[in-house]
Amino acid sequence: MQIWVGLGNPGAEYALHRHNVGFMAVDAIAEVHGFGPWKKQFQGWLAPGRIGPDKVLLLKPATFMNDSGRAIGEALRFYKLGEDALTIFHDELDLAAFKVKVKTGGGNAGHNGLRSADAHIGNAFRRVRIGIDHPGHKDRVTGHVLGNYAKSELDPLAAMLGAIAAEAPLLAARDDVRFMNEVSRRLA
């Protein structure tokens, strides 16, 4: 069993924020792969399903970004799973917009959702880093991250989310390199 967590903030006013692209990714995966309905559990929303032969639980913490580690830790403890069963989908300032990279472990690069996960469970989990681009100056970061995607970005966003969902079986099979290559190929 694997737990895939999308990071974001709950509420309609945050739905199209760049910071919520983790929520968007797990929503796309749930839709494409016919996951069960979302239900309140582990201080968030949980949807069970299968991707190929793998049982995957999708989780969207409702604790707000800065405290998402609480929900993640609760789910891992309940299912008696370690960090190796966890994948977190999150926005990444240090990647070009709509680029997708996967890595295991590492620092949190100032991302408060990752910082919270690190504090509650450690940092040896797999991350699907979804590029949102850097606005150019550190004074503009908060407005950029907490801003909505522009209308001109909605088509590339939809294409990227569709590619992530379509190639999710490779991620479930832990073929991270092929997952990244196939997502990139779909977006070329």
TrEMBL record:
The UniProt catalytic activity note for this protein reads: an N-acyl-L-alpha-aminoacyl-tRNA + H2O = an N-acyl-L-amino acid + a tRNA + H(+)
Q: Which residues form the signal peptide?
A: none
State if Hydrolase is listed as a keyword. Answer: yes
Q: Which InterPro entries match?
A: Pept_tRNA_hydro, Pept_tRNA_hydro_sf
Subcellular location(s): the record lists: Cytoplasm
Instruction: Provide the site residues for: Discriminates between blocked and unblocked aminoacyl-tRNA.
Output: 9
Residues at the catalytic site? 19 (proton acceptor)
Q: Where is this site: Stabilizes the basic form of H active site to accept a proton?
A: 91
Alphabetically sorted, this entry's keywords are:
Cytoplasm, Hydrolase, RNA-binding, tRNA-binding
Name the major location: cytoplasm
* tRNA-binding listed as a keyword: yes
The EC number(s) this enzyme carries: 3.1.1.29
Q: Which domain of life is it from?
A: Bacteria
Which residues hold tRNA?
Answer: 14, 64, 66, 112
Q: Name one GO molecular function term.
A: peptidyl-tRNA hydrolase activity
Give the family this protein belongs to, as stated in its UniProt record.
Belongs to the PTH family.
User: What binding partners and quaternary form does the record give?
Assistant: Monomer.
What is this protein for, i.e. what is its function? Catalyzes the release of premature peptidyl moieties from peptidyl-tRNA molecules trapped in stalled 50S ribosomal subunits, and thus maintains levels of free tRNAs and 50S ribosomes. Hydrolyzes ribosome-free peptidyl-tRNAs (with 1 or more amino acids incorporated), which drop off the ribosome during protein synthesis, or as a result of ribosome stalling.
According to UniProt, the name of this protein is: Peptidyl-tRNA hydrolase
Q: Which organism is it from?
A: Sphingomonas arantia
Taxonomy-wise, where does this protein's organism fall, top ranks first?
Bacteria, Pseudomonadati, Pseudomonadota, Alphaproteobacteria, Sphingomonadales
